[in-house]
Amino acid sequence: MKNRTxxxxxxxxxxxxxxxxxxxxxxxxxxxxxKDRIFAKMQVLxxxxxxxxxxRDTGLLGAEHVFExxxxxxxxxxxxxxxxxxxxxxxxxxxxxxxMFNVLGKxxxxxxxxxxxxxxxxxxxxxxxxxxxxxxxxxxxLSK
Length: 144
Known about the structure:
Blueprint: H1 2-18, E1 22-23, E2 31-32, E3 50-56, E4 58-59, E5 67-71, E6 74-79, E7 83-89, E8 92-102, E9 105-106, E10 110-116, E11 121-128, E12 134-138
Parallel strand pairs: 2-7, 3-11
Antiparallel strand pairs: 1-4, 3-7, 5-6, 5-8, 8-9, 8-10, 11-12
């Protein structure tokens, strides 16, 4: 009985400390977003477009919430935990945004404004930190 109580307390502490925090998902382990969760195709006129990938990190809690992926004010796709989505994008200044809706209401979106170079690959990660807040950051190891 004492061991069960100890295990219960340890489990509760781990859950409290981890909160909704997500952990990085390997690009090889991430699953492609299914077609029914892709809402728009980016209009690309360039002969050498940029490639933009968003990886939705995984986590213990918060996995049931969908992340919306927006590019220049256009809803492009919805990502579940462990999903990835890649799209060609016109080079130049781009605003990338991630939004999440949950039972508590809308969390503040995470937004990045960046300049994409022609023919380059850009990989971003989206997840939840301890606060809980959405985060959106470029993965420099995967971007080329």
